[in-house]
Design brief:
CATH class: Alpha Beta
Shape: globular
Structural class: alpha/beta
Oligomer: single chain
Number of helices: 8
Largest sheet: 8 strands, mixed
Distance between the termini: 45 Å
CATH architecture: 3-Layer(aba) Sandwich
Strand content: 15-25%
Order of helices and strands: HEHEHEEHHEHEHEEH
CATH topology: Glutaredoxin
Radius of gyration: 17 Å
């Protein structure tokens, strides 16, 4: 058991405002790892999510194969576990978390479920309007660790942008579970958010939502950092 009775009661109360069904799709792999493939804490992730979805009838969980599932292949997913979070029955695929959402990232998980289940993001109106300037694909990868108290702010900022603009792909990445991916971007501290579009931008630390909006616009427009 990941959540004791006291925490279960707290989470159940936190999730009470959910109005609409939300689904979590977890892509996992099995067998021999492919060359260059990184696999995180799959069993732990599934165990934690099963306990969470059991606390609210509007939540559901589905496990799929990273290598055999058509949606995973279409999206080019290559890390396990990868969690897709979306309104049940929707085609949304741009809010993701790679790894186990534990420690401080457990709050990220709960806040994201509430965002999807209520439709409330708390992203300012001006930011929502300006975000429509992102007219080409932008990937925002927020590298985090479970012990970082500032990391949820960064991940949730990217999720808000993805919620309001389908051109934004937002991924929270548990850096310690995927060291090769972290080294690719020279991650030395967290949170560290890499924004990849026509050009690449970088945001260090937890920053206001507006900073993430402006970085996404620049990456989409091809502005050099």
């Amino acid at each position: 058991m990941f959540l004791d009775e006291k925490i279960q009661a707290q989470v159940r109360e936190m999730l009470a405002p959910l109005q609409n069904p939300v689904e979590l799709v977890v892509f996992t792999t099995s067998g021999i790892e492919l060359p260059g493939q990184e696999v995180g804490l799959q069993d732990e992730t599934l165990g934690l999510l099963k306990e969470v979805v059991a606390l609210n009838p509007n939540l559901s969980l589905e496990q799929r194969s990273l290598h055999a599932d058509p949606e995973a292949q279409a999206l080019g997913l290559s890390y396990a576990p990868t969690i897709l979070l979306r309104e049940k029955g929707s085609q949304r695929n741009n809010i993701r978390f790679l790894g186990l959402p534990a420690g401080y990232e457990f709050s990220t998980l709960i806040e994201t479920l509430l965002m999807l289940g209520t439709g409330e993001t708390k992203l300012g109106e001006k930011s929502q309007v300006d975000l429509q300037k992102v007219t080409s694909p932008v990937r925002m990868q927020a590298f985090v660790t479970p012990t970082c108290p500032y990391c949820p702010q960064a991940v949730l900022a990217t999720y808000k942008l993805a919620y309001h603009n389908p051109n934004v792909i937002a991924e929270g990445v548990e850096a310690s579970e995927f060291p090769q991916l972290s080294r690719r971007y020279n991650i030395s501290g967290v949170p560290d958010t890499i924004i990849s579009g026509a050009t690449q931008q970088r945001i260090l630390g937890g920053q206001p939502d507006r900073v993430f909006v402006e970085a996404a616009i620049k990456a989409s427009a091809g502005v050099v950092a």
